[in-house]
Amino acid sequence: MIKRKNHLLLLLGLFLLNLSALAQEKTLIKTSDLTKIVTTGGQDISNDGKWAVFVKNSIQHKSENQYNYQSHLWWVDLSTGELKQLTHGDKNDSQPAISPDGKHIAFVRSNQIWLLPIAGGEAFALTEHPNGASAPSWSPDGSQILFSSTIPMWDLEGKPTWPYERPGRKYGDEPNYKAKEKPSIKGNPDGTLEEVRAWLAENAAKNDPTVIDRLNFLGEKSLSPDLYFSHLFSIRLSDREQIQLTDGFQNYYSATWAPDGSHLLATSVKYEEHPDRTMHTDIYKINLSDKKASLFLHITNHRVGNPVYSPDGKLVLFGGQDIRESSYNQSMLGVVSAEGTNTQWITEELDRSAGSHTWSPDGQSVYFTAANQGGFTLYQYNVKTAEINETISGPVGVTDFALANDKILYTLTKVANPSELYLREIKGKKVETKQLTKFNESWLANRLIVEPTAHRYTTVEGYEIDYWVMEPAKRQEGVKYPTVLQMHGGPSAMWGPGEFSMWHEFQLMAAWGYGVVYANPRGSGGYGKNFQRGNYRNWGDGPAADVLEALDLATEQYSWIDRNQYVLTGGSYAGYLTAWIVGHDHRFKAAYAQRGVYELTFFMGEGNAWRLVPNHFGYPWEDGVKEILDYNSPQNYVQDIRTPLLIQHGSVDYRTGVRQSELLYKSLKILGKETEYVRYPDEGHELSRSGAIHRRMDRLNRIIEFFERYVKHPN
């Protein structure tokens, strides 16, 4: 009896142990996990370095299939790590800026500047600007807040300096019915020429019809026939008086205060030709005493801007780029004296596109970020030695940062967690790093996350290609699995473990039992100019060979990859590359081309990203260029496509142009090929990143569902 009792107790113990193991087993990433991802950014640190404010971005589930993006301000104690939510409700808050005395936070809500007292009390609207307000920046003494607002061309006084773009017309020969003060003349379709022009102008003011005279008339999700100009304003906190600091047919933005508060520096350019035809920018100085603007820095054949004064006011840090090969030359950082002389580029030798630059509080260093071999590195430039060091690097992504004293507050993307806030602090000779937020860890704790494995190979042309391999979640030894080749757009984008946008999609595919291979082919950013220029007049053959070689090498290295069950996808330029590959290579069981371009000459006329054509190939009317464009257009190989192809586009995608997808689909349909077309209403090019949440989830599931029609998974 005792033995039987002990045996039952043993069985019960084993049963409970198995239950515990099952309870601890991690679950797979799901499509709806997209709604659980929290990101942080927009941080600002108080001058005393004791606390900071940042933006928490999340997705709120409102009702069935209805979700809202939500952004709120949070406070963090940098000593203890204590967190506190500062703003609530359905409004989205962004761009926080702490006052010099640390008593207020200025931020943007509902397209206006708001003010939040730190000591307590409700936030209140500081501006009621008719054209909205953004980018708050405190004056050094804290008495004023600088902000930007966009003014339509018809509300500006005078006439532009560039020639009128409407052929046979001149400025002022028709009344302006879009202006605040409507003209007295009444239009008449049967009247004099003046009255007829007034009648036509009345119709055009209602966009019925839309009259276009611009080169860049396409927006992101609609036509953009009108010009708008960004101008600078300030508001005094003592009496809330708003002062317009700049005016005219000129843009002023990315402004910085002089340390003594006497003037501003801002990105601008005096247009000698239409703004759509002007590629360079300069830096202008705006005196606050008389509001006069004058040229501060111009560099021939370059765009320069985003100025930032050094703490002592002796130097100005700025960004710039040689525009003679704007698709390939790297963005650089430079410094110039406060008098606008002795310009020096400081990151030219780094051969990376530098951005998000700022001075250290002591003025001895410059910090900036740059895409770098699959991650986004935080760099430090030493002013005395001119050395550039990697402060935070590796297969991670620094997406935003702020500095104060010996502290760096930054947002980090890594494979284990898509976005959290970290603090790096220098204490004597020691460097301490601590994680401040754990917004994603509660739901990630029970998820199975697949880590990518990094590889590199060298092409016959000498390009070093980075690629990564992710195995299927819960992979079993001795079993072969279908594998998806994922490709990035741009074409100068870059993927890697430090890139945020594909974190969930890659994990979801692994959860569905797919291996994932992704690479950075020639033309990608993050590897320098020569590598980025590797796709000049070569969008198809070279990059396709690079990603296909990565897939071949991965198959040789990993026995679980089933070479008979490949699938393929990519968006934007990678939608192009998907169509190119299936028109030349028939190894794939299925493919999904997303928001791509497929006929390059047509793309120059349809998409707002049309300059990719002349920058990468030349204009089609130039000698030999049309032949190169035709050769590189996937549409011209449509008859050779054998792979089942799902084509996706947003109905108002004006970046690549929705007609591109219609042309490809209709051609395949006429030819009797296996094809399907998905058209998302009200969505532009950013569907996968910032579109309606239920459509983002629909897109993910359609990729999986289409592939599942053609692949077989192990039992």
Overview of this structure, please?
This protein has 715 residues and is α+β, with helices and mostly antiparallel strands. Among the domains are: 166-212, no CATH class; 448-708, Rossmann fold. Strands 29-30-32-31-33-34-35-36 form an eight-stranded mixed beta sheet, with helices on both faces. A four-stranded antiparallel beta sheet has the order 1-2-3-4, with no helix packed on it. Strands 5-6-7-8 form a four-stranded antiparallel beta sheet, with no helix packed on it. The longest helix is centred in the N-terminal third of the chain and has 23 residues, at 2-24. Mean pLDDT is 94; it is low at 8-23.
In short:
The protein is α+β, with helices and mostly antiparallel strands. The model is unreliable at 8-23 (pLDDT under 50).
Low-confidence stretches: 8-23
Principal-axis shape equals globular
Q: Determine the CATH topology of one domain.
A: Rossmann fold
CATH level 1 class label of one domain: Alpha Beta
Classified in CATH, the superfamily of one domain is: Alpha/Beta hydrolase fold, catalytic domain
The computed structural class is alpha+beta
Query: What is the average of the pLDDT values?
Result: 94
Instruction: Kindly state the percentage of residues in helix.
Output: 10-25%
The quaternary organization reads as single chain
User: Count of helices?
Assistant: 13
CATH architecture of one domain: 3-Layer(aba) Sandwich
Q: What's the Cα radius of gyration?
A: 28 Å
Number of strands: 36
Largest sheet: number of strands, sense, barrel closure: 8 strands, mixed
The rounded distance between the terminal residues' Cα atoms is: 44 Å
| Percentage beta strand | 25-35%
Order of adjacent strands in the largest pleated sheet: 29-30-32-31-33-34-35-36
